[in-house]
Amino acid sequence: MASSPRTGRSSVARIAVTIGVLSVIALVAITIIAGADPLGAGQHFVNGLFPPVAVTDRGIRVRELYGYVFAVAVFLFFLVEGLILWSVVRYRRKPGDDTLPPQIHGNAIAEIVWTAVPAIVVASIFVFSWQTLNVVDAISTQPQTKIRAVAGQFQWQFEYLPADYDPAANPPKEPLYTQLAPTGDDGGLVVPAGRTVQLYLFSPDVIHAFYVPQFLFKRDVVPGRLNTFEFTVNESDAGGTFRGQCAELCGTGHRVMLFDVHALTGADFDAWLQQKITEANASPSPAPSGAPAPSGEPGASGPPPAAGPTLQISALNVAYDVATLEAPADTPFKIEFDNQDASIQHNVAIHEGSIGGTEVFKGEIFAGPDKRTYDVPALKAGAYEFNCTVHPNMTGTLTVN
Amino acid sequence: MATTALHPTAQGYRSTLYEWVTTTDHKKIGILYLVNSFLFFFIAGIMALLVRAELAAPGLQFVNDLTYNELFTMHASVMIFLFVIPILAGFGNYVVPLMIGAPDMAFPRINALSFWMLPLGGILLMLGFVTGGAAAAGWTSYSPLAQDRPLGMTGPGEDLWIVGLILIGTSSILGAINFLVTIFKMRAPGMTLFRMPIVVWTVLVTAVLVVMATPVFTSALIMLFIDRNLGGSFFDPANGGDAILYQNVFWFYSHPAVYVMILIAMGIISEVLPVFSRKPLFGYKAFVFATVAIGAIGFTVWAHHMFTTGAVYLPFFSLMTALIGVPTGVKFFNWIFTMWRGKLTFSTPLLFALGFLSMFLLGGINGAMTAAVPVDFAVHDTYFIVAHIHYVLFGGSVFGIMAGLYYWFPKMTGRMLGEGLGKIQFVLMYVGFNLTFFPMHELGLAGMPRRISDYSSTAGWTELNLLATIGGFTIAVSMLPLLWNVFVSLRTGKIAGDDPWEGNTLEWATTSPPPPYNFDHLPEIRSERPVFDLRHGPKPGSAPTVEH
Amino acid sequence: MSSEQQALTTTTDHSPVAGLAHDARGGISNVVLGMLLFITSEVMFFAGLFAAYFNVRANAALWPPINPESVPPEPFHLAILPLVGPATVLLILSSFTCQFAVWAIRRGDRTAFLRNIGVTFVIGVTFLVMQAIDYVELGREGLTLSSGPYGTTYFTLTGFHGAHVFAGVIMLGVVLYRGMAGQFSARHHDAVEAASLYWHFVDVVWVLLFSLLYLLPGKG
Asked: Which helix H or strand E contains A397, and what residues bound it?
């Protein structure tokens, strides 16, 4: 074809130039995407090769280990790629050269060296990683805080446990307070900075994984198995919020299994937990207000004389059965919500315009199979969207007219 | 199509088809393997493009969550079980009897049977797409997610996937037995074990891995099937089973399977580098021992896929995983010093071999990083791991496969593939590959888990995902020159002759393509390079030169 | 049309193709080596099932577990099965008769060969019948594939062993048929060697299974 299979210098030069040009084009494209700032992009690129800054005692150790392993990796990478590049550039066959190079079959000393040196390198990585592992996996007998994380399809909940909680006891002690909402300012895992936190992982259905990138840590949540780990958030990171996510494929809602970790100072945490316990005791069960709407004449039986209709919606397999709802404007109405998903929490929340809009109503979150009737206040005419607070991918539109 | 010359008679057409379907010639079966594998490569590639398109920007644009799960599950299953593993077996099928001077495989009809089980198994594997949903629990198919539960969304597609894989596995086992008997019993006079080409050694070790590991996978699949359909309680904690047990049995196979997917590609590289450097492979015996060591250690590292389960003895598996880096390192230095002081010709096979060296290196290094258990805690099940496996399986295996294709195409068809198109393909593939998979390291370190169909626009992952998608489509584009090249070269490619590359091994001592039963006469075999000896005359004194 | 020619010869004979390079290498025949490798893969298959069995057993608090249908509640009794003892003895005996058949054909004694293969074949069929009767008995007692880890592992292990006995019986049947057609001699009997290796393998698996399921003391 274009060049004979025996060409040497010109061919390799062309390929090198082409790869170079394409790489530069790619780099330029990357730079443009990254904000037209080559130096900043370079800095960004190098930073991206490291995990996030750790916010726990153990995470700091993992990041140190990563630093060591990464340094070894970079050295080996450039050493070997350099040798390859050198061979390619230096030992090209000259055009018309038909002589054989020296026929070298091997060298025993070289083989021993490049068996022994990598062996020493991997041994050093193993020793350092073992030392770090012993710290990361260490579990104390008297942690200052005990929390149980329950991961089910597809939500997290966090149970704050009494100090004398023993996961092996049967039945184990009841939690002091259960945090149902996995995300948001008023939801998620709240932990005291500077205190040891022991986490027990429990799954009622399939395997999930507790993963917080800034902890540089994850642990699987395996049904039928108790996994325990411990960490202490740095005191300097009190006030921070860290993103967490399920890291083991758990079904169609895998991507929505997000949670937030809020770190409070020790005193703030105590006050927060106390307040939550008090609130929970004050209203043991927020019973649905009003009697369930009878099936017959909805207009006549409701307590408010001008009450609107009752809308029906149900949830099964983490999806609503209807995509659109309609309601009259400026009239309070009811939503009868039938959650058919066993032990999965759902609700109906209504937002102005789209899901990102202001939340005008939020129904109680509860686990199925169960029903609730929500009393929705009067809404202005317009377009609304509703979704499930726990599963933001369950959505539908509500038209008020 | 107007000329009568292009119209084969109905009889002639039928007999050509009949001949291919009923053939027991290892060369034809080898080509059937290659064609079949590339068909499945195309299908799985389309799935990968859909996955990349969906991830290019936040929000669900093209598919829903369930379809997305089906796509990545089937992408991995098809790529692994119907492309990489069988295409390497296909190269083995074509070249092993030629390279050891045998007329055919030991059991030609079992060889045909092994092949024909593949398309059948492949169709079963993917049949779920038309029967109400393909398998969607990941190619690992972890229990209890793979049990019949409404939220796992695993319907009959999962059962079809299981049955298809059992069939493919059986095909693989029968093929491996055939390779072993062929290699042990059918070598030509003079072809001692330590004169076999390296690619034959890698086929040998691969076959041992398949015979020892694949049946264990079959047992795992059967137990999963019993759990799902017959009320069994092996793996489902809700019925008194053990979820971790499945992972142990699964990875006992699936880790050695990684070596099944890479060893023969390493063997191909070890044929290509010496030929295009005009030197023997540096450290032949060290290379053989390293291959055997990788195979042996490969059986002791399976639980490194399970570090985060909290259910395995971490230091042991960490040490063994790190140790596997040693024989791999030995191979790297042997490859480099094969080129050292050689005279390199940059034909397409060598380019792809160099692509293998430079990219598989990164797949080895980022894999060794995760052998440090705490580092694995940070990056496990994130895009860092996706980057790792693609640097091994694409940067390693696929570049090796391309090297093998360009290297042996002249032997298989009698015509050369075009060098110009080959170089265009190489450059596009090399750049596209790095653009796709390098950013995934950074995505993983930044905390993006695998197997999610969408991510928040506030997570900071958008730009890198867009880059990866652009790269993915570049890889797809790089396949067009290959297709055109094969299409054109089959008709008008340069006539290859018996030995276009000045090869070393016995397949270059016969015609291109070889006749039925391969050889009219064999050259004398006095070293691992019989055709080199024939061309340049035997060395004075049979002892190999060892340079200090 | 060499491929068609070849299709006419049987797997177990030395095909002309195999013969070309075959004489260079002594030792065991291709067929016997192939069978040994196939048995290796079968061993690994059973290793997977046995691993699952040990794992499930180690996790259980009580083994065998309580039979929910028994009054008063008591564990499953496998030892009371009426036929499993005789079946085991018969299967072990059949390994001997199978080997006698191999020795006979090596000597060229076709009569003894056919007699011993016939006896082995009949014992194999008898074993399968006895296992079926045992299954019915167990079903009556309330143990099925879906009655928890105990039933699942019991029926999976013995069931797959049974399937292998069935495959072995078919091999023996083919060997018997071909033997009666006079296809084996002192020099050409690779199929007999291969079938007998498979039969010994099936037998050894049963001895292991029997020890595990019936002889190993329970726990809890």
From this structure: strand A395-400
With cut-offs at 50, 70 and 90, classify the pLDDT of residue B64: confident
- Least-confidence region, from A28-42, A133-147, B206-220, C29-43: A28-42
C218 CA: distance to closest CA in chain B (Å)? 18
- List CB contacts (< 8 A) between B226 and chain C: 145, 152, 156
Q: How confident is the model at residue A346 (pLDDT cuts 50, 70, 90)?
A: confident
Q: How confident is the model at residue A13 (pLDDT cuts 50, 70, 90)?
A: low
Which of B60, B65, B244, B354 is the mutation pick for testing A, counting most A CBs within 10 A? B65
Interacting residues of A383 by C-beta distance below 8 A, sequence separation 6+: A353, A397, A398, A399, A400
pLDDT category of residue B426 using cuts at 50, 70 and 90? very high
Tokens of B468: 């990866």
Measured CA to CA, the distance from residue A362 to residue A346 in angstroms comes to 11
pLDDT tens per residue, range B179-234: 999 999 999 999 999 999 999 999 999 999 999 999 999 999 999 999 998 888 89
> Is some CB atom of chain C closer than 8 A to the CB atom of B18?
no
B180-202 in b/e form (b: 16+ CB < 10 A) is bbbbbbbbbeebeeebbbbbbbb
Cβ neighbour number for residue B310 with a 10 Å cutoff: 19
Using a CB-CB distance cutoff of 8 angstroms, which residues of chain B are in contact with residue A62? 374-375, 377-378
**Contact between C49 and C42 (Cβ < 8 Å):** no
Chain B residues closer than 8 Å to A73 by CB: 365-366, 368-369
What ipTM did this prediction achieve?
0.91
Q: Between B198-229 and C148-180, two packed helices, what is the crossing angle to 10 degrees?
A: 120
**Closest residue in B to A52 (Cα–Cα):** B446
Q: Which helix (H) or strand (E) holds B465?
A: helix B462-492
B&C contacts, CB < 8 Å: 151
Which of C17, C48, C156 is facing B216, going by the closest CB pair?
Answer: C48
Question: Using one digit for the tens of pLDDT, what is the confidence trace for B266-303?
Answer: 999 999 999 999 999 999 999 999 999 999 999 999 99
* CB < 8 Å from C in window 206-265 of B: 211-220, 222-223, 226, 230-234, 239-242, 245, 248-249, 252
> What pLDDT was estimated at residue B210?
96
Burial state string for B62-100 with b = 16 or more CB within 10 A and e = fewer than 16: ebebbbbbbbbbbbbbbbbbbbbbbbbbbbbbbbbbbbb
Which residue do the tokens 């929910």 mark?
C68
What is the number of other CB atoms lying within 10 angstroms of the CB of residue B544? Answer: 15
Map tokens 């904690």 to a residue.
B237
| C220-to-A169, A224, C51, C73 alpha-carbon distances in Å | 20, 20, 20, 15
B382–A contact, CB cutoff 8 A:
yes
Closest chain B C-alpha to C109 CA, distance in angstroms: 29
Q: What CA–CA distance (Å, rounded) separates A151 from A171?
A: 20
